[in-house]
Amino acid sequence: MPKLSIVIPVYNERDTLRKLIDKVEAVDYAKEIILIDDYSTDGTRDVLNEYEGRENFQVLYHDKNKGKGAALRTGFSKVRGDIIIIQDADLEYNPVDYGTLLEPILDGRADVVYGSRFQGGTHRVLFFWHYLGNKFLTTLSNMFTNLNLTDMETGYKVFTKKVNDSLTFKCNRFGFEPEFTAKVAKSKFRVYEVPISYSGRDYSEGKKITWKDGFAAIWYIFKFKFTN
Fold this sequence. Notes:
With 228 residues, the protein is α/β, with parallel strands linked by helices. It has a single domain (4-226), classed as Alpha-Beta Complex (Spore Coat Polysaccharide Biosynthesis Protein SpsA, Chain A). It is built from eight helices and seven strands. It has helices spanning 17-26, 44-49, 68-76, 98-106, 128-145, 161-166, 176-186, 211-226, and strands at residues 4-10, 31-37, 57-61, 83-86, 112-116, 157-160, 191-195. Strands 3-2-1-4-6-5-7 form a seven-stranded mixed β-sheet, sandwiched between helices. Helix 5 runs parallel beside helix 8 and helix 7 (176-186) packs parallel to helix 8. The longest helix has 18 residues, at 128-145. It is globular, with a radius of gyration of 16 Å. It starts with a strand and ends with a helix. The model has no long low-confidence stretch (mean pLDDT 92).
């Protein structure tokens, strides 16, 4: 069985981090867990200190807040596994879905797998305008990449070491999602999409993405169509 590298960007997730790590550890795969703190200010670093030096853990710290994309780049540079899974620290995405996400890669069909929140998995009912915004961004991205994804913005992206070694990312914040998709499409990697469960948060619970990130994503969809 290939070894997994679970890359977890963390920013101000003191209340969810231990529970999330417990869920990741409970998944029965050989794995390393890479935690990247993006200069949290709420006590998250005190939680992360508990995992320093533990077997199969790497705990990394940014000296200033740089964004999710920057945290992911830091994590990607340290992976030692065969398959990389991006895992948010906020409990919106459930590690029990790893088996579904990994199947197309393990059986040799895929290089990249997207976990779609819109393919029939169980999900919390929340914001209509967020849903519409996601669908718009995914459609626009598909027009430029010629993919037929249903959820380009999903936090669950799984890919092989070959993909990680082949691609270089630049976006520091949430622009990582359209950048990743554009570069995977340009490189002709085999892409699959599978249904996942989703337990979205509202803003009172700490949700961080805003309408500004949506407008930035539009810019990055155009940008990475024509640049590398």
